[in-house]
Amino acid sequence: MRLFIGIPLAGAVARDLSAVSARLRSKDDGLRWSAPESWHVTLQFLGSTSREQYRCIGESLRGLRSPPVPVQLESLGFFDRAGVFFAGVRLTPELSALQQQVLAATAPCGFPAEAREYHPHITLARSKGKEGRHGIQRLRNQIQRQPAFAAMDAREFLLYESFTEASGSRYEVRERFPLIEV
């Protein structure tokens, strides 16, 4: 199993992102655009996971307590080296605290925290080879002003399983974890 933990998007936020994607997308841009149903804010990528680790993760995350977390998208941006176009997510103290709790909960299951700094975002498109690199550059030139996005309160986070397919990745929810006032 290939797993990760993330926050699903509220309808208003997904609609805002869909409008931006529709405006910027073109048929021959050389990019693989993410489907709206796959959009999420990753809290931790776990990767290949054994059955024992899966059970441990579920038990550990069920014990996590956090109030709902405000989520606000910021500007559109690019991870140039990876050829990724994304919508940035403001790293609030609440989001940072939730991410740190998730890391602490999964560590005993064999998943150490990444060394790189947490940069929450929603991946909108990825480049496909050389054509995609040109597509990323064209996208950068198209963005004249940053859009405004709806805010949301995350009331749950999810454990997802990722499946790699020819058309891109597909995600299935394995478990839901509510965020409630503590």
The CATH homologous superfamily is called: Cyclic phosphodiesterase
Give me the Rg, rounded.
Answer: 17 Å
Largest sheet data: 5 strands, antiparallel
The H/E string reads: EHEEHEEHEHEEE
How would you write the strand order of the largest sheet? 2-6-5-4-7
By secondary-structure content and strand pairing, the structural class works out as alpha+beta
Uncertain regions spanning at least 5 consecutive residues: none
What is the terminal-to-terminal distance?
A: 32 Å
Shape: globular
Percent in helix: 25-40%
User: Any idea how many domains?
Assistant: 1
CATH architecture: Alpha-Beta Complex
Note down, in words, how this protein is organized:
The protein has 182 residues and is α+β, with helices and mostly antiparallel strands. The protein has a single domain, classed as Alpha-Beta Complex (Cyclic Phosphodiesterase, Chain: A). Helix content is 30%, strand content 37%. It contains four helices and nine strands, in the order E-H-E-E-H-E-E-H-E-H-E-E-E. The chain has helices at 11-24, 51-62, 93-106, 129-142; strands at residues 2-8, 31-33, 40-48, 69-79, 84-89, 121-127, 151-154, 156-165, 168-178. A five-stranded antiparallel sheet has the order 2-6-5-4-7. The longest helix is centred in the N-terminal third of the chain and has 14 residues, at 11-24. It is globular and about 45 Å long.
